[in-house]
Amino acid sequence: MKKFLIPIMIIAIIVALYEQVNAEKNVYLMVVAIVVFMFGMMQLSAKTPSKNQDKEDENV
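The structure corresponding to this sequence follows.
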């Protein structure tokens, strides 16, 4: 899954930056690129353990 998300996120970043440089900006394409990037970040960060996870385990 990680190998699939990272290239898609990179493509979304490139598309968003390309749209930012254009004279005629397509807002919808920019929003889609940002949503794809944020979704990918959410999926990748979901696997990162929380700093408080050890403390929560001790309290149980």
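DSSP finds three helices and no strands in the chain.
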